[in-house]
C-alpha cells in the first residue's frame, strides 16, 4: 500500500475549496481524472460516481463513492477498480481571514500483477498527489472571487 499526504495553503475560503472538490467538471483542471461525474446532482455520503484515467499504467474507468462529507471541512472518497483500491481524505481548515489549509492524503493499493509495481510507483504517486494539491491551489487562486468581481464592477 502506498500512503501519501501533503498540506497546501490556498488563498480562498474553505467553502470555495469545498465547492471545487464537489464539482466533477473541475477535476480535469487539477488531476489526471477525466470524464468525472457524480451520479447525484447534490453529492452526499453514499453518492457514487466514476472517472477515467486517460493514460498510464492505470489507464481505464474507475468507480468512486463519497464515504464522508462535512461541508466546508472534509471530503473522503473510495475508488474501486480492477487495478487499484484508493481511499482519499481531504481535510479543510480556515487559515487566516480568507485562506484554507488543505490536507490531501490517502492510501492506494495496486491490485493483481500491478501490486509488484508498488515500490516503483510509490515515489511517483506521492509526488503526483502533492502536485495535484498544488495545482488545485493554483487553479483556485487564479480565479477572481465573485465578491471581488462584484466590488470591482460596482
Tell me what the structure shows.
The structure is a single chain. With 154 residues, the protein is α+β, with helices and mostly antiparallel strands. The chain has four helices and seven strands; from the N terminus they run E-H-H-E-E-E-E-E-E-H-H. It has helices at 14-21, 27-30, 118-142, 146-153; strands spanning 2-10, 33-38, 48-53, 60-70, 74-80, 84-95, 99-110. The protein has a seven-stranded antiparallel sheet with strand order 1-7-6-5-4-3-2. The longest helix is centred in the last third of the chain and has 25 residues, at 118-142. The N and C termini lie far apart (53 Å). The model is unreliable at 149-153 (pLDDT under 50).
